[in-house]
Structure formats: C-alpha cells, structure tokens
Write a structure and sequence with these properties.
Layout: E1 9-18, E2 21-31, E3 36-40, H1 47-54, E4 62-67, E5 70-72, H2 77-82, E6 85-88, H3 100-104, H4 119-132, H5 148-160, E7 166-170, H6 178-193, E8 197-201, H7 205-211, E9 214-219, E10 222-228, H8 234-242, E11 260-269, E12 273-281, E13 285-290, H9 296-303, E14 311-316, E15 319-321, H10 326-331, E16 334-337, H11 341-345, H12 352-357, E17 365-366, E18 369-370, H13 372-385, H14 402-414, E19 420-424, H15 432-447, E20 451-455, H16 459-465, E21 468-473, E22 476-482, H17 488-496
Helix pairs in contact: 5-6, 8-17
C-alpha cells in the first residue's frame, strides 16, 4: 500500500481500568485511509477492550480518539456507526428470523411518506449493496438459513450501508472454513480498493502477512509498536508479542503424578478437531493452550459428553468410556467448569446453595425428596472451606463477585468427589486476589489426587500452574510440553505454527 495521507483515525494514550485491572496502559495507534491494519497480541493483551472503546461499548478513562481530524467520544455503538466506524464482532449481531435486507437496515428501515415501512425500497437498496460487493445473495433470504460466512457478508453489507469509512473485524475467520475465508478475504480487498480502511484482529499470522499493510502489536495492555508488514518476519512479530521467555512459576507439584486416569486416543469430530490424543494422571494439572478457534473448548466438551466423538476413544481408568451426555461423565466422576459461567455454569436467579448442590441432588435426597438439612450442611462446609464471600447461602448467586461465583462452581464439583476436573478459563473476569485463590485451590485439588485439565487464554496462567501443556492449533495437537520445556515463546510459536 502506498499512502502518504493523514491518518483517518488516531487513538492517543488510551487508558482503561476495570476493577483490579489496568486493561489499557496509554495505548496509541493510527489508521490510514485505504489500509488493512492488523491488530495483534496474545489473549488478554487488550485488543478487544481497545476496539470496544472505539465502537462506543466501553469508554476510556483517559486519552482521546481523533476521527477525521475531529476529537470524538462515542457514547453508544450507534454513534460510532453513524460516524462511519462499523465493528463486526466475533459473535455476529444478526437476527436469524429476519431477511438479509431487514438485517442490513435494522433500526433504520426506509419509510414511505405515510411513515410505513417501504419494503420495495428496502429490498432494492439492500440488493444494490450486495451486488456492489459482488455478494451472491438474495436480499429476501432469511439470514438464519445462511452459513456463517454469508451471515458475515450480511454484516459487511450492513456496515457499508452506513457510508462507512472504517470497518473493524474481530477474529472474523475463527468459525469459517478455508473456502469461506477465501471469500471473506476477497471482499476485504475490494473494500480496501474502494479507499476504505479495515482494522483486522486475528491470532493467525498467516492472515496478517497475507492481508495487512501495517501491524500494531499490543502486549499486557500496552502498545509495543506499529510496523509496515514488509519490515516484519513471523519470528520478529512473535518476539514483539511475547517479549521474553517466561518459565513456569512456583505452583507446580513437587511429587510425581500418580497413575494414568484418562486416555484420549485419536478422537475426532469433523469440522471441530482431528486425531486428538493425550493422557492425564492423578494429581496432575494438564494445561490446554492454543489460540481462539484452535479447538480447545470443543475437545473438553467432548470429554464431558456435551459433544459426541465420531472417531477414536476415551478411556477412564483403563476402561473405554462412552458418554452419551454429561450425566454419563458425572457418573464417571468427571466435573466440568465451562468457559461462560453465567450462561452455562450458573443459574443466576437461584441461590448459592441451590447452585452448589445441583449435580449432587440425587445423593442429597431420600426417595426422591430433597434433604434440605444435608444440602444446607454441604453448603456451609464449602462456603467455609473455599472462603466464599457471601452474606448467606440463600443469597442470589448473581449478586456475588466473579471470583466467588467461580468458587461456587468449583465447590459444586468438589461435592461429587471428582477424579477428573475440567476447567475452562478458570479466572476470566475476576480480580487479582481471587485469581490467586483459585490457583491455590486447583493445586490443592491436584495434591489430593484429582487430575485437572485446564484451558486458559492467559499464557502466564498456563505456565504458572500446569505440570504439562498440550498446545492445539487448528483443531490438532501441535505440541506436548513438560513444564521444564515450556516458555511463553515456545507455546505461542507452536500455537501460531511458527516453530524453528
């Protein structure tokens, strides 16, 4: 790209604080007209927070945004869109029950002079936008009938219907096949040819080097720098992202792990992951590392019976296990703390007690009737044991802090005496003090003989408490590392496919 013009966007010294976290530390970067600008960094580097500020979802605590030479402060996403900045989030914001045209003009449907919806004009305008982008879609088609890639094209068409000058795409290829990725990349190039700009957030370095004109790297909430793509190599970019080797911390078990309690042998679910093999021992914490879309959460969902494997087998204590659902996994003494605790792990309108005893209800009942005295005693025991901060066991779980909610889920699975505990993103969204407590609890479980499989997007967390680390990339095992082999750089290199 040759562009000597002034920046269309400047984000200057952006700071953002959340409780216990300095998420962005004076971040600055610029976007030029007609460029694809990649924004990269490890999970937790601050990319999504920065983009949510630009999109009007979060507001900076200090710093300024200059858009087309004017200072701006977007109070809502709609203000950002109306100003010519459109953000396409990883989780698409389409309405499946509406047509393509209705999604494109949602919230601003064309009206007749009688203030009725002008369907004819809406479909005409929508089709013109689709045809201009060479998107082969009928504006009348229901969006729910479209594959993910085409739903993404609808979002792009919606963005351009606002006379957008800058489109932000957050991990747009994470759920796409290679053919769908090729279609998306072709449209991005067309957008650039029209003189519009794109901020492209991705973990995949191949995509960065294929699409981007310039790259900005974030690390630990700070901007490391911006460079022209032609000045970079993959190794140099990885080094900018991780800065240094960070070796495993002090929370590793000092004793040798016990017997093998779980064997995962060549399991496959087509389209999600392929030929996955690893094992787990008593008293061991096995970290599953990888980037967004690498297949980590899908693999552990299969281990808990949420997804049915198509090939391969799972052995628990040397015997083949066939999980037709989570109840089969629970019966095999496997516990699972999901990634999204509020949507998948907790019933937010129920009490601490009710959430804590949920999987063990049959064990705390007599002839089908709940034994409230037993449940109350169990809740009291775990509230004290795990130092759960709550005014009462009858308190709504939704009123607790994130760290205490996570402790309740852990207590729930401890209550069934698990032999294997799977935990996905154990400390996401909780403060530093609670993180330390969760880490100590996990190590305590391991010392009692529980085998733990832990997924974390935070590299330092994986390194600090894992005894072994399995790295996934594009749904396959990229590496299996002992703790003394593992550094931040080696893990990121395997996850990105950049190995020496």
């Amino acid at each position: 790209m040759e562009n000597n013009g002034k920046p269309i966007l400047q984000m200057e010294n952006i700071n953002k604080y959340f409780p216990g976290v300095h998420a962005l530390r004076g971040v600055s970067f610029t976007v030029l007209p007609g460029e694809v600008h990649a924004l990269v960094g490890e999970n937790g580097a601050g990319k999504s927070t920065l983009i949510k500020i630009l999109a009007g979802i979060h507001h900076p605590d200090s710093g300024q945004i200059i858009w087309n030479d004017q200072p701006v402060s977007f109070q809502t996403p709609f203000e950002a869109w109306n100003s010519g900045i459109a953000t396409i989030h990883q989780e698409l914001m389409v309405v499946p029950q509406l047509s393509v045209a209705e999604n494109i003009f949602l919230g601003r449907l064309p009206r007749t002079s009688a203030n009725l919806i002008d369907h004819k004009e809406m479909y005409r305008k929508a089709q013109d936008i689709l045809d201009h982008l060479d998107i082969n879609l009928d504006a009348h088609e229901l969006v729910g009938n479209l594959p993910i890639a085409m739903q993404q094209m609808v979002e792009i068409a919606k963005a351009l219907s606002f006379d957008t000058q800058l489109i932000v795409m957050d991990e747009p290829t994470s759920a796409l096949s290679q053919h769908e990725i090729d279609i998306l990349f072709d449209r991005i190039k067309r957008i650039r040819e029209q003189g519009k700009s794109v901020i492209f957030i991705t973990h995949k370095l191949d995509e960065v080097f294929y699409l981007a004109d310039r790259v900005t790297v974030l690390r630990d909430g700070s901007s490391v720098g911006t460079q022209d793509i032609h000045e970079l190599t993959k190794d140099k970019l990885v080094r900018m992202m991780v800065d240094r080797d960070i070796r495993v911390g002090t929370l590793h078990a000092q004793r040798k792990p016990g017997k093998k309690i779980l064997e995962v042998q060549n399991i496959t679910i087509d389209g999600l992951f392929y030929d996955i093999s690893f094992d787990l021992h008593e008293g061991e914490i096995l970290g599953l590392a990888g980037l967004v879309g690498s297949g980590r959460s899908d693999v552990v969902s299969a281990l808990f019976g949420i997804r049915k494997i198509e090939e391969g087998q799972i052995l628990v204590n040397g015997k083949r296990a066939r999980f037709h659902g989570p109840q089969d996994a629970i019966a095999a003494h496997i516990g699972f703390v999901p990634e999204n605790r509020k949507e998948e792990g907790l019933l937010m309108r129920m009490s601490v007690l009710e959430n804590l005893v949920m999987p063990s209800t049959p064990a705390t009942s007599r002839k089908g009737l709940l034994n409230s005295a037993v449940e109350s005693r169990i809740a009291d025991e775990f509230i004290e044991k795990l130092s759960i901060q709550t005014p009462s066991k009858w308190q709504f779980i939704g009123n607790l802090s994130g760290g205490n909610q996570q402790k309740v889920i852990l207590a729930r699975w401890l209550n069934i005496s698990p032999k294997i505990l799977i935990i996905d993103e154990p400390t996401r969204g909780i403060d530093v003090g609670a993180r330390s407590e969760i880490h100590k609890l996990l190590r305590s479980y391991a010392e009692d003989g529980v085998g733990i499989i832990m997924i974390s997007s935070e590299m330092e967390e994986v390194l600090s408490i894992s005894d072994r680390i399995v790295v996934l990339r594009d749904g396959r095992v990229a590496a299996s590392l002992n703790s003394d082999q593992a550094t931040q750089e080696t893990i990121v290199s395997y996850a990105l496919g950049v190995t020496k």
